[in-house]
Amino acid sequence: MTTLDTPPADVTREAPELLVPRLRAAYTSGRTRSLAWRHEQLAGLKRMLVEREAEFTAALVEDLGRPPFEAWAADLRASVREVEDLQKNLESWTAPRKQKVPALFKPATASVVVEPLGVALVIGPWNYPVQLLACPLAAALAAGNAVVLKPSEVAAATSRAFARWVPDYLDPAAVAVVEGGVPETTALLEQRFDHVFYTGNGTVGRIVAQAAAKHLTPVTLELGGKSPVIVAADANLQLAASRVAFSRFLNSGQTCVASDHVYVHRDVEQAFLDVLAAEIRKRYGADPRTSADFGRMVNRRHTERVKALLDGGGHEVVVGGEVDLEERYVAPTVVRTTDVDSPLMREEIFGPVLPVLTFTDLDEVCATISAGDKPLALYLFTGSDAVVEQVLSTTSSGGVCVNDALTHLLVSSLPFGGVGESGYGSYHGRWGVDTFSHHKAVYRRPSWHRDLPLLNPPYGRFKQKAA
Ligand code: NAD
């Protein structure tokens, strides 16, 4: 028999129908509610990411051919920063939030009590397989929940690293890792959770939301899409090229908030392409295949997928274009296109290929963006406040960066999440604590306070007034 303090030896193989009730029992016992427990878990998570940095980095290199510095900065350090932010603010973000009370109800008081939801399921993707599991995990723990983690089977080495190290650093009575693919995730989703947090694609997002709906379980969907970039005629082109190159080619283009395609004003198209080509050469040298700073596609299937997008036609290659299926290599590539119906312009690219289109009328660009699926991010390069205002007020996206790309996701005072086809719900910092909490309305009257006579029947004495 297992108890709260002695979970089964091989927790990663525990059947979901046993695992979830075991974690729920831990939650119901009150174990996860105290701020002391939450602090312990956050400290444990941070220690795991710091002490096991070498193991997780090796896993990221194995899964994604990541340059070790990039693995550390984008996955490990980014996760530690999120944990530290939660540690620093835990008391204030989880404290009851005092609310105003109408004069009629005084001396009663009102507050919003931030309470944990129960048992959360976090399903992660393969592209930033540490950060996108560790950050929602940190938020769920900070909010006082028990958590089941389901790493992506596609990033197999990182998945194994979570399964190996989480039980050593986090409370095994309340946190478990379940490895596996579709069958294991499907079996998990049959259980009743109190929140499901899914990061990945929209097709699976719909499957997750449908499964959760059977239990009326709230869901956060962190999905992807085609995040556009607008480079206005007055933009600082050097700066735009550098930041677009960073966001497009980081992790070999496998970033949910990558710059997916660029609309550049016709007057500066050639100048922009020239500085972009120079920027790529500066970053990865004349032969990016030999660069220690350029990663690989996660597997052959995704390499073939990006190759098919490139082979789909409708564009002219300006930089790169080489693909090596054996090596899972796609060169940093820029193409010039006018064909908005090509596969490259219809699907999220999720690889190191950047289509560039021209425009002359900003209204038309905004209308095109608005006519499509709402993207996860939109990036705008301009020196004009009027242009910023026009784009902000006529388009919708999960987030926006002006004169930058991708960096908004590092600012944890901002909610990170999508809208429409790019998902719903958000996290990071306080937004993550709120996602994994119930906001309970508490109205409190002193026991000596007498009822107002007009609220109670018989109402007969007021009839004349109402008539
Ligand atoms: P993936 O294939 O690793 O899938 C994500 C998770 O879904 C995995 O844990 C997997 O086991 C599970 N899964 C897959 N098929 C399933 C099914 N049929 N039923 C239940 N579970 C299933 O990752 P992916 O979807 O290829 O990730 C890439 C996508 O994720 C891109 O669209 C990208 O933009 C998006 N993404 C979004 C964010 C964000 O924060 N919004 C971050 C990263 C990636």
From TrEMBL:
It comes from Nocardioides aurantiacus. Belongs to the aldehyde dehydrogenase family. GO terms for molecular function: aldehyde dehydrogenase (NAD+) activity. One of its GO terms (biological process) is aldehyde metabolic process. PANTHER family: ALDEHYDE DEHYDROGENASE (PTHR43570), ALDEHYDE DEHYDROGENASE TYPE III, ISOFORM Q (PTHR43570:SF16). Residues 23-442 form the Aldehyde dehydrogenase domain. One of its GO terms (cellular component) is cytoplasm. This is Aldehyde dehydrogenase.
